[in-house]
Amino acid sequence: MPTRLLRPLMAAGVVVAVAGAAWWWQADSTEAPASSATASTMPAAGPATAPEVSAAAPGGSSHAPDALLTPNLLRIFEQMLDGSQARDKEGLMAEMRAKIDKYLPPEWRVRALGLLERYIDYRNALEALPAANIGDPAGLRRILDARAGIRSRYFAPEEVEGLFDAEEKFDRFSVEKLEIERNANLTPEQKRQALAKTEETWLTPEQRADRTASVAQLAVGEQTAALEARGASPQERFEERSKQYGYEAAQRLATLDQQEQDWQGRLSRYAAADEATRAQLQAELFTPQEALRLQAALEMRAAGQKKKAASPP
Q1: d(C-alpha 78, C-alpha 17), whole Å
Q2: How far apart are the C-alpha atoms of 270 and 262, rounded to whole Å?
Q3: Longest dimension (CA), the chain
Q4: pLDDT at 213
Q5: Residue 171 · residue 15 · CB < 8 Å
Q6: pLDDT (0 to 100) of residue 46
Q7: Whole-angstrom Cα distance, residue 107 to residue 103?
């Protein structure tokens, strides 16, 4: 894709989309969740009819939400733009007009092309923003404010809300969280309360649930690694997990342990075999779906063993 025309920088959420995700990993060691609340019934590809939009609820907005204006439209734009070899905007838009019916219903064609053209201009305008620095929350706020100003130049208020609102809220949450985490004047309990309030203010219920699940998943992984390191017995694993996560969760994790042990055993047999017998063992030991990830599993296993051997005793 041409460098100036559409630099493949950071898709729609340039600045804090990268900085926010990076410090989220630093603060919580979990990945910033995608907003499931922004999912749309819009088709990802192929001609289709526009989904029905229900009437507004009594006492709510006087108009129904616009089914075209969702974050999924931006994801579709990115799919369309990916790999373009156009050298100027005119050539790029010619490509987009030729392929848009593969992605969106024909009744949205005119509006979508207009939005896409402005989205291209918007993305190019974002290149003028300074690089994000996760060590400078105040600077991140300035970048967010500047990005909001650029959006307002290219999109109407209702378009900004539909296309970018979820991303904007998550980025604002990210900056506030960074400020709280780095505030040395707050006690751990004050930080916990401030973070909870910030989540409530900025994140949707779905985003909060995703974040809670990510933190819990990481905690389970860390506990399992610790149990592995000290060679804990199945009974010890079950007792510790029951205390922390409850009896049913401990049962599910025990089942996963058994499945992992079985997988590693089959992988060991396959890795120890010579080339002449591997084809037969693959058919005997692995399902077709498992066979697809067999080579990657062997490479990961070898890398882990190499790392372990290089570590000091």
Answers
A1: 15
A2: 13
A3: 73
A4: 75
A5: yes
A6: 40
A7: 12
Q: What is the DSSP letter of 106?
A: G
Helix (H, G, I), strand (E, B) or coil at 134: coil
What share of the chain has pLDDT > 70, as a percent?
79
How sure is the predictor about 15, in pLDDT bands with cuts at 50, 70 and 90?
Answer: very low
Q: Is the pLDDT of residue 119 over 90?
A: yes
Express each pLDDT in 162-173 by its tens digit: 999 989 998 999
Each residue of 28-59: pLDDT tens digit?
433 333 333 333 334 444 433 333 333 333 33
- Predicted pLDDT at 154: 96
Query: CB burial class (10 A; 0-12, 13-18, 19+) of residue 42?
Result: buried
Exposed e or buried b per residue across 124-154, where buried means at least 16 C-beta atoms within 10 angstroms of its C-beta: ebbeebeebebeebebbbebbeebeebbeeb
Q: How sure is the predictor about 245, in pLDDT bands with cuts at 50, 70 and 90?
A: confident
d(CA 279, CA 270): 9
User: Cβ contacts of residue 206 below 8 Å, gap of 6+?
Assistant: 35, 36, 37
The pair of three-digit structure tokens given for residue 286, joined into one six-digit string: 């692995």
3-state percent helix, strand, coil for the chain, nearest multiple of 5: 70, 0, 30
Q: Comparing C-alpha atoms, which of 261, 291, 259 is closest to residue 278?
A: 291
Whole-angstrom CA distances from 115 to 3, 68, 99, 215 are 21, 10, 15, 37
Length of the chain in terms of residues written: 313
Q: What single letter denotes the amino acid at residue 293?
A: R
Residues 6+ apart with CB under 8 A from 237: 227, 250, 253, 254, 257
Q: Which residues contact 105 (CB under 8 A, 6 or more apart)?
A: 43, 47, 48, 49, 50
Q: What is the pLDDT of residue 73?
A: 93
Measured between alpha carbons, how far is residue 6 from residues 99, 120, 228 in Å? 17, 7, 47
The structure tokens listed for 237 are 């694993």
Asked which of 154-158, 206-210, 272-276 is least confident by mean pLDDT, the reply is 206-210
